[in-house]
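queue> pop job 88
queue> type: inverse folding (structure -> sequence)
queue> payload:
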């Protein structure tokens, strides 16, 4: 008889056997469901011999880095190190407006920052007197990812470069003699959520929408700047808060506010102003290969529009993107 409790016990036993009495494990976390469940599972199995690293790329949602730190470290007891590299990311993105170049830079910088931190942790682990060094690398790979990499590369893999940590597992496991550990590789997404609940992870985190690795950078059309990141964050925060307040969060697969840096004309008070255009997007999907725009009540959209133009300085228009996928993609870039 298969139960999640039994599965959890078995996973923990397997991890302990694989890692041994002294082995140590390193893994990247993002605050998303998969990496959090994988990290909590490792913590249950081997405690502080699991090292989680969160790279703050400055492109996370409003207050998200602090929230993730609170959730993982304080609530879930995960041995987490946060690296603040936001300025490095922002500086490197200056002058870069091509979507694929933005993704490539962010992916590459992520690997550099992560590897530097891995070295520091390794030194720290060695100095702490705990025997052994870091010999495993954790990845939150799910069953659908396993299937996709075994079969052909579908359109999602070829149209855009799609990986949070593109190249990281290969670099960590080839160059540094680490063994890959993938405790979620037999699970579908809803099973990962169920496992998360069994592990005591709070419902809000378990049900969190996916968030792309390059974060807000692909939700700002063209060049990224601190000003545009701030605007995207504020507008997004209003949109997501209203979605939660209306009880719609779990009916939507993914939602965000993006910045179109073209300037539109508006009137504010008795003045003519030029402001950015906010594009709201919310979709429902089961596989993220096809998607439909979510049908909000009109008064909901009006409320969000009113709040954004009133509360977010520098914005004078709000639009709702009703494009399905295909032909549109879920992200704007
Ligand atoms: P698209 O925009 O291709 O997105 O319809 C499908 C799903 O993939 C996510 N996405 C990304 N995730 N790095 C990621 O980790 C990326 O560069 C990236 N681009 C898109 C998107 O959020 C959606 O869930």
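queue> result:
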């Amino acid at each position: 008889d298969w139960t999640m409790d039994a599965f959890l016990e078995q996973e923990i036993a397997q991890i302990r056997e694989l890692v041994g009495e002294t082995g140590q494990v390193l893994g990247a976390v993002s605050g998303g469901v998969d990496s959090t469940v994988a990290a909590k599972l490792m913590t249950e199995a081997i405690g502080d011999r699991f090292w989680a690293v969160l790279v703050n790329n400055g492109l996370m949602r409003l207050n998200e880095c602090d929230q993730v730190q609170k959730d993982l470290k304080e609530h879930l007891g995960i041995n987490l190190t946060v690296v603040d590299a936001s300025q490095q990311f922002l500086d490197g993105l200056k002058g870069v407006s091509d979507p694929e170049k933005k993704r490539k830079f962010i992916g590459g910088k992520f690997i550099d920052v992560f590897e530097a931190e891995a070295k520091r942790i390794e030194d720290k682990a060695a100095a702490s007197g705990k025997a052994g060094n870091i010999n495993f690398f954790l990845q939150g790979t799910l069953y659908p990812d396993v299937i996709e990499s075994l079969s052909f590369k579908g359109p999602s893999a070829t149209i855009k470069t799609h990986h949070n940590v593109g190249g990281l597992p290969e670099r960590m496991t080839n160059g540094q003699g680490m063994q890959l550990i993938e405790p979620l590789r037999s699970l579908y997404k809803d099973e990962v959520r169920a496992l998360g609940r069994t592990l005591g992870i709070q419902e809000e985190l378990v049900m969190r929408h996916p968030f792309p690795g390059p974060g807000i950078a692909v939700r700002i059309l063209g060049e990224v700047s601190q000003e545009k990141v701030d605007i995207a964050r504020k507008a997004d925060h209003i949109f997501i808060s209203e979605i939660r307040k209306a009880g719609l969060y779990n009916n939507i697969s993914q939602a965000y506010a993006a910045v179109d840096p073209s300037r539109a004309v508006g009137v504010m008070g008795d003045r003519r102003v030029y402001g950015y255009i906010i594009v709201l997007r919310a979709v429902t999907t089961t596989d993220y290969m096809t998607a439909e725009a979510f049908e909000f009540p009109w008064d909901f959209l009006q409320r969000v529009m009113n709040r954004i133009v009133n509360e977010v300085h520098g914005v004078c228009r709000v639009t709702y993107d009703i494009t399905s996928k295909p032909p549109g993609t879920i992200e704007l870039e």
